[in-house]
Design goal:
399 residues, Rossmann fold, six-stranded parallel beta sheet, 14 helices, 17 strands, binds adenosine monophosphate
Length: 399
Amino acid sequence: MMPSYRTIDALDAAGKRVLIRVDLNVPVQNGKVTDATRIMKTAPTIAELASRGAKVIVLSHFGRPKGARVPAMSLKPLTEPLSDALDGRHVTFADDCIGDTAARVVASLGDGDVALLENVRFHDGEEANDAGFARALATLGDAYVNDAFSAAHRAHASTARLASLLPSYAGRLMAAELQALERVLEKPERPLVAVVGGAKVSTKIELLGNLIGKVDTLVLGGGMANTFLNATGLEVGKSLCERDLADLACDIIARAKHERCTLLLPSDVVIAREFKAGAPTETVAINAMPRDAMILDIGPRTIKAIVDVLEQSRTVLWNGPLGAFEVPPFDRGTVAAARAVAELTERKKLVSVAGGGDTVAALGHAGVIDQFSYVSTAGGAFLEWLEGKTLPGVAALGP
Ligand code: AMP
């Protein structure tokens, strides 16, 4: 169940020092941000609080410095990209997130000003969810806003403990993520279909177990479908396949039947002898798989079956690519299914929510991110939520 939480609508922000936890853990190469999506998505919350007259104090982690000051993991280079995302609003950087340095910068802020504090993970109290470290952070603020859904699966000081020390609120991005997730799994319009792909079953056992009890149809594609095909006695040749998980796959198939969840496995596949761009391919029925080939994508009959299910559904949840989409032409199944979801969403036939790991990259490759109802910026947190787990950072915002 989704815990109740207050949003920043309930925060009287003017003149207050507002500590906001965001996720600035973006990919950076040679000092340049290569994908600013997460910054862009949280910027509206920061901008709104600033224009409502708050002194906004931004907290984030970056990388895994494990409690040490690692210069390569400083948040300082993020000051400018954050300022850019705030339409040029000045951002003051503080060299530490607690102590005198942080206090001095916070004291210098006027109403509407923004400060970015150094990486919270430079202190080992952060990952330890340490009460003393959380108290040191709390002295800097009058209120706490969490806008980092993507870090909410961690019970850390700045994502969890801090919420118990100050009046706490969900930021706009956090609230949007929670609403999107609620819309698919808590009270979805049915029929509800989940499309789950990706490389392996082993990383998604709990997710599959949880979804089976909730969705009307579960579409399985990608490498993980091979494990299921193999478990039902089909030849999968040299495909990626977790043969040791055959019993577990059979168990999932049996449970799906028991829960009246329809499983849709590939009926035809695109195969190749080599896994490389432009390798000669064939499309074969699933019972005609040669021993010396690999399954690298779903075939046209399977795509049609998936599109048929999508057309009869009202809500879709998507996690994981349906083939090895990074290497063309094995992107075709993922692209075709993603475009069908996008088109049905645009025609208001479908509510579509996607997220987790490679999903954003796959949907970006298909050029459909903006057409889905919601694409989550979270990886691990999105997956843990799909597994049915309570996320500490979300629970901490509850009463
Ligand atoms: P995941 O992180 O579990 O969502 O897995 C994503 C990865 O699965 C991507 O890198 C895909 O290339 C890979 N993948 C999907 N289908 C296949 C397949 N049939 N064979 C090998 N790899 C695949």
